[in-house]
Amino acid sequence: MYIPCPAFLLWLTLALCLYPGEGDWLQASSRNLAPDAVSRATTYNTYSGDLAALQDGKYPPQEATPFFWHTKGILTFEWQGELPLEKVGIFVGEIGNNFQLRAYRGGHLDETGTVREPEGERSTLLEENSRLTDQWVQIPFGEGVLADNLELRALGSVVIYEVEIYVRTGQTAVERLGWGQVKALHR
Q: Domain of 96?
């Protein structure tokens, strides 16, 4: 059965499907891995806040819970299998600082953040020194960076509201939702 469709509805559908926001009109999709990753904060340095709040999809101006490293610290993220990393996004609050990203293939950091055992192979080391506040900080990875765990090092006191880890998922305009994202939508 044929149902007539107004031109405006067709235009709106195309605009929403083909325009992903900032940047290119049609681009390879990526997926936020952070809600599905096993994450923890190392215990050597003090912090306040709930680690789960960094992956709940909430950041200012929404009502969001801050995570505050008092001096410096390391957040670790681990997932199953090596994946191609695209970028890490960090929503920084009223106190900004420098960051360092270390991506690894294998190995893991102990609870204190002082020993990597086993070491694993470091696939990249990136630094971000803009000290931006109250906005997203984006740290892109080069092509072909594979990892199964990541260390996000805050090199001084910092307030963080959200961390997103994007992996490349192929040439499509449709983004797949991970289970963590589905749970966050229904809170």
A: 28-185
